[in-house]
Write a structure and sequence with these properties.
Number of helices: 8
Largest sheet: 6 strands, mixed
Helix content: 25-40%
Distance between the termini: 31 Å
Number of domains: 1
Radius of gyration: 18 Å
Structural class: alpha/beta
Strand order of the largest sheet: 6-7-8-3-9-10
Number of strands: 10
CATH architecture: 3-Layer(aba) Sandwich
Shape: globular
Strand content: 25-35%
CATH superfamily: P-loop containing nucleotide triphosphate hydrolases
Low-confidence stretches: 232-238
Length: about 240
Amino acid sequence: MAEILRAEGLGKRFEKAGNVVNALSEMDLVIEAGEFLAIQGPSGSGKSTMLNLLGCLDRPTSGRLFIGGADVSRMGENELAELRAKKIGFIFQAFNLISVLSAQENVELPMMATGVPRAERASRAAVLLERVGLAGRVKHRPDELSAGEQQRVAIARALANSPSLILADEPTGNLDTGTGKEIMGILQILNREFGTTIIMVTHDDCMAKMANMRLLMKDGRIERIDSPEVVPGVLSVVKEALG
């Protein structure tokens, strides 16, 4: 399989009260196309730091990061912004939707940044919203949608520019258990049927078991990587819900 991401000795240090804190220590990691990786660990283990580095939202203090074969650790800010817009989709715990825009307009935003023509933006946004089960809600604003529906909009927005990699930071953290499983089922469908590569941070063991691989972190280091027993039955339930 093609390599999507490679981290070589990736590290991040902070200074706090005159002390040096190793938030992430010399991490080596390879992610291939089509993988679904869940990252877990206690608070302060380096999960969020790791995701921020992999998503080029922060710069490492040591090591190198390659995305699609390009060494991004040495890119300038404009190059990083272009790479994030075209190759990485983000899903956040707090949804981060624009409150005055409709679901469709929220999904169109990333495409505006990459110069996609208006008609194509509208068509692609409608297809993506239908894919996540929101065909009848495209004109609704976030305050007219449930939390689960808002996260579905956020997923559609993350897919807007057909990225090679999706990074999800606690995507079910603000949802009840049932809705969280529906969102995870959508991510499973994207991964298994559309080949989308996903890296997800989660504190929830049940949600982590819906990924193909699990990375456990402790004290800024990878403790181990294993293959959880994937929870059965989720895909069929979500497919039925999506119609």
